[in-house]
Design brief:
The complex is a heterodimer of chains A (257) and B (14).
Chain A: E1 2-6, H1 10-19, E2 25-31, E3 34-40, E4 46-53, E5 59-62, E6 66-71, H2 72-80, E7 87-92, E8 98-104, E9 111-117, E10 126-127, E11 135-140, H3 141-151, E12 157-162, E13 166-172, E14 177-183, E15 196-199, E16 203-208, H4 209-215, E17 224-229, E18 235-241, E19 245-251, E20 254-256
Antiparallel strand pairs in A: 1-5, 1-7, 2-3, 2-6, 3-4, 4-19, 7-8, 8-9, 11-15, 11-17, 12-13, 12-16, 13-14, 17-18, 18-19
Helix pairs in contact in A: 1-2
Chain B: E1 2-4, E2 12-13
The chains are: A mainly beta (257), B mainly beta (14).
Chain lengths: 257, 14
């Protein structure tokens, strides 16, 4: 028996919004420790890794490890049927071929349940090595979203250059070129507005704007985003999900031919 | 010209 309850549907709606542009389906691996989803986008350029810790759910029961393959488009449709302040309970029997989403209004007067067929997905699991990144940038997630949106107008790809002075985002194409430089915040009044750079070595990497823009769909989940970079390895774009866990996007760099 | 690399080039297949 698997049962996981959150007092508020909003967070789950935001999580679905953050993955559904990249992934059509995904396997939710449920265990004692929580729920994990790892999946590559269709073109195998990026990887989404979602972790939700069991102890942060309002109720969590997982008697046996369970892998539930879900169509994320269908799941998003179902979650749209929940009001933001509804309690959500996800339920499945062991070895079941369906999962049930139950929504309960705050006054307990409306209860709805939606059953969804599970899918058998033959998805590859990738082993992600622990990496000490040369540069780790923390910045406001809204600012990152804005930069990705603005620079995508100029080119399909964006160069991110990080030094100890700051981080520079550049794009150039037929229309012209764009550069956005962010200096490290000297005086941190509000932590969520800060730009903080931890640098071992300067890094310059090129990434496809299309994927970066897809990652920024997670912006409503967290005020800050963390970018981790090292030469010749995938960029990690991480959004914390309050005390529930995190979503990490890995993006393979563009390399010189 | 730069070329998009695939994510599987960087991570091991379990």
């Amino acid at each position: 028996m698997f049962e996981a309850r959150l007092m508020n549907a909003t967070i789950l709606k935001k999580i679905l919004d953050a993955v559904k542009d990249l992934l059509n389906e995904g396997t939710f691996d449920c265990s004692d420790s929580g729920i994990q989803l790892q999946a590559m986008d269709n073109s195998h350029v990026s990887l989404v890794s979602l972790t939700l810790r069991s102890d942060s759910f309002d109720k969590f029961r997982c008697d046996r490890n369970l892998s539930m393959g879900m169509n994320l488009g269908t799941m998003a449709k179902i979650l749209k049927c929940a009001n933001n302040d509804d309690t959500v309970t996800i339920k499945a029997q062991d070895n079941a071929d369906t999962v049930t989403f139950m929504f309960e209004s705050q006054n307990h007067e409306k209860v709805s349940d939606y059953e969804m067929k599970l899918m058998n997905l033959d998805q590859e699991h990738l082993g992600i090595p622990d990496t000490d990144y040369s540069c780790v940038v923390r910045m406001p997630s809204m600012e990152f979203a804005r930069i990705c949106r603005d620079l995508a107008q100029f080119s399909e790809s964006m160069v991110i250059c990080c030094t100890k002075e700051g981080v520079k985002f550049s794009a150039s194409g037929d229309l012209g070129s764009a550069n956005v430089k962010l200096a490290q915040t000297s005086n941190v009044d509000k932590e969520e507005e800060a730009v903080i750079i931890e640098m071992q070595e300067p890094v310059t990497l090129t990434f496809a704007c299309r994927y970066l823009n897809a990652f920024t769909k997670a912006t409503p989940l967290c005020n800050q985003v963390q970018l981790s970079m090292s030469a010749d390895v995938p960029l990690v774009v991480e959004y914390r999900i309050s005390d529930l866990g995190h979503i990490r996007y890995y993006l393979a760099p563009k390399i010189e031919e | 010209k730069s070329k998009q690399s695939g994510i599987k080039n960087y991570f091991s297949t379990k």
